[in-house]
């Protein structure tokens, strides 16, 4: 499992093979993307790997960001946004490989509750 924390301030990639333990705290507005090697090792017809960093930035910029007035509504809007962003990410992976993945691929995008 690999991870990248994509934030408005930039990306922080954590290499699980170099660190026995990574500890951090997500702040409001930050998100953590966990993904398997099937995502980043997905290849197009020319053998090029999938560009996850660019896809993450496109996913975060795509679609409307819901606005809400209460904490519960904010949480619901964030959940919808995370689902949309994951959908956008996997649509990009599928397009990159021509529709058929040759490896399993999984991703989980997390955000702090408060």
How is this structure best summarized?
The protein has about 110 residues and is α+β, with helices and mostly antiparallel strands.
Textual characterization of the structure:
- It is a single chain.
- The protein has one domain.
- It is built from 3 helices and 4 strands.
- A 4-stranded antiparallel β-sheet has the order 2-1-3-4.
- It is α+β, with helices and mostly antiparallel strands and 114 residues long.
- Helix 2 (52-61) packs across helix 3.
- Mean pLDDT is 77; it is low at 5-9 and 65-71.
- It is globular, with a radius of gyration of 15 Å.
- A hairpin with a 2-residue loop joins strand 1 (2-7) and strand 2 (10-14).
- The longest helix has 27 residues, at 71-97.
- It has helices at 37-40, 52-61, 71-97; strands at residues 2-7, 10-14, 31-35, 107-110.
- This is PPM-type phosphatase domain-containing protein.
- Residues 23-111 form the PPM-type phosphatase domain.
Which SSEs are present, and which pair or pack?
Blueprint lengths: L1 E6 L2 E5 L16 E5 L1 H4 L11 H10 L9 H27 L9 E4 L4
Antiparallel strand pairs: 1-2, 1-3, 3-4
Helix pairs in contact: 2-3
């Amino acid at each position: 499992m690999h991870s990248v924390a994509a934030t408005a301030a930039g990306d922080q990639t954590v290499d699980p093979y170099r660190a026995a333990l990574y500890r951090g705290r997500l702040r409001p507005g930050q998100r953590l993307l966990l993904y398997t090697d099937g995502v980043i090792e997905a290849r197009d017809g020319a053998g090029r790997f999938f560009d996850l960093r660019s896809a993450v930035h496109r996913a975060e910029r795509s679609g409307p960001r819901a606005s809400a007035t209460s904490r519960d509504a904010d949480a619901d809007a964030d959940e919808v946004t995370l689902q949309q962003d994951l959908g956008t990410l996997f649509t990009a992976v599928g397009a990159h490989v021509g529709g058929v993945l040759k490896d399993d691929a999984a991703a989980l995008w997390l955000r702090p509750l408060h």
